[in-house]
C-alpha cells in the first residue's frame, strides 16, 4: 500500500528544537510524514534519533517548535486534548518495555484498560487477538522472562497496536536481534502497513532494514544538529554528494545501493 496523497500529512514537524537541560541536540527541524508511509529517522550514534522520537511523542517537552498529528498540534495542546490524541499512536521501545511481573496478555491489555471502558472479557479477547496478529498466539500467559528477545519485541508491538493506532513509532526495533529475527520483524512492519494502512516511523541505523522497507528517510547529523539529507534511501546512496550521507549508506557488504 503506497502512502496516501492526502493534503494533510499524518505527521508535521515544524521548527522543532530538542534537548535536555541546557543542551540543544536538534535545532529547527522540519519534515512531514505522509499517511501510510514507512518513514525512517537514520544517522550515526549520538545524532539525536531517539531524542527526536521522544520529543515527538511527548515524553520530553521541546525547547521550541510544534509537532502536529493529522493537522492538529500535539506539543502545544492542553492535557485533555493530548490524552485524546495519544490513542492515535503507539510506540515500540528498544527493549519492548514490558512489565516483567505481568503476562503478555496483561501487558497488551494495559492501554485498553487505560483508554477504554470495555469489559474484562472483551479486553482479554482483544489482547489475545493482538498477540495473534504478531505471531504470538498461544503465548498469552507467558511472562517476558520466559520468551526470547525477538518475541519480546513482538509482544511490545502487540501492545503498541492494542488501540488500533493510526501511527506506530519504533525506536531501534532491530537492536539486539539476530539478522533472521530482524528480517522477520521488518516483514511484520510491512504487513501491518499493508493490512491496516498504518503510518510507521522507525528510528534505526540498520542498513538492511533501511533499504528493505523504508519509503523515505531523513538523516540526522550530530554536528549539524539537524537534518542533512531527506529522500529515498537508495537514491540518496547513489546521488548524494555529501560524504557524511554516502559514508553512512554505502558501507560494508550488507546492502548494495544499486
What topology emerges from the helices and strands here?
Elements (H helix, E strand, L loop, with lengths): L10 E10 L2 E11 L4 E5 L6 H8 L7 E6 L2 E2 L5 H8 L2 E4 L11 H12 L4 H14 L15 H12 L6 E5 L7 H18 L2 E5 L3 H7 L2 E6 L4 E6 L1 H7 L3 H7 L9
Parallel strand pairs: 3-8, 3-9, 6-7, 7-8
Antiparallel strand pairs: 1-2, 1-4, 4-5, 9-10
Percent strand equals 15-25%
User: What is the spatial order of strands in the main beta sheet?
Assistant: 6-7-8-3-9-10
Structural class: alpha/beta
Total count of strands: 10
Specify the number of helices.
9
Question: Could you please describe the fold and organization of this structure?
Answer:
The chain is α/β, with parallel strands linked by helices. It has 9 helices and 10 strands. The chain has helices at 49-56, 79-86, 104-115, 120-133, 149-160, 179-196, 207-213, 233-239, 243-249, and strands spanning 11-20, 23-33, 38-42, 64-69, 72-73, 89-92, 167-171, 199-203, 216-221, 226-231. Helix 3 packs parallel to helix 5 (149-160). It is globular.
Short description:
The strands form two sheets. The protein has a six-stranded mixed sheet with strand order 6-7-8-3-9-10, with helices on both faces. Strands 2-1-4-5 form a four-stranded antiparallel sheet, with helices on one face. A hairpin with a 4-residue loop joins strand 9 (216-221) and strand 10. 40% of the residues are buried.
Amino acid at each position: 500500500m503506497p502512502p496516501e496523497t492526502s493534503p494533510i500529512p499524518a505527521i508535521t514537524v515544524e521548527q522543532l528544537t530538542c534537548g535536555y537541560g541546557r543542551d540543544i541536540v536538534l535545532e529547527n527541524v522540519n519534515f512531514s510524514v505522509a499517511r501510510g508511509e514507512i518513514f525512517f529517522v537514520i544517522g550515526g550514534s549520538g545524532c539525536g534519533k531517539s531524542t527526536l522520537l521522544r520529543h515527538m511523542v511527548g515524553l520530553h517537552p521541546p525547547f521550541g517548535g510544534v509537532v502536529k498529528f493529522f493537522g492538529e498540534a500535539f506539543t502545544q495542546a492542553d492535557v485533555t486534548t493530548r490524552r485524546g490524541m495519544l490513542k492515535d499512536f503507539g510506540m515500540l521501545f528498544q527493549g519492548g518495555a514490558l512489565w516483567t511481573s505481568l503476562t503478555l496478555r496483561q501487558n497488551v491489555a494495559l492501554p485498553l484498560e487505560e483508554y477504554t471502558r470495555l469489559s474484562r472479557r472483551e479486553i482479554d479477547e482483544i489482547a489475545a487477538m493482538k498477540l495473534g496478529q504478531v505471531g504470538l498466539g498461544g503465548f498469552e500467559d507467558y511472562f517476558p522472562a520466559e520468551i526470547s528477545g525477538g518475541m519480546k519485541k513482538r509482544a511490545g508491538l502487540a501492545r503498541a497496536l492494542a488501540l488500533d493506532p493510526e501511527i506506530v513509532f519504533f525506536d531501534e526495533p532491530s537492536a539486539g536481534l539476530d539478522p533472521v529475527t530482524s528480517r522477520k520483524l521488518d516483514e511484520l512492519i510491512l504487513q501491518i502497513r499493508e493490512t491496516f494502512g498504518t503510518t510507521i516511523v522507525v528510528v534505526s541505523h540498520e542498513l538492511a532494514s533501511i533499504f528493505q522497507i523504508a519509503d523515505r528517510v531523513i538523516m540526522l547529523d550530530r554536528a549539524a544538529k539537524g537534518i542533512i539529507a531527506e529522500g529515498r534511501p537508495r537514491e540518496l546512496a547513489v546521488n548524494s554528494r555529501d560524504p557524511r550521507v554516502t559514508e553512512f549508506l554505502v558501507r560494508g557488504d550488507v546492502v548494495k545501493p544499486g
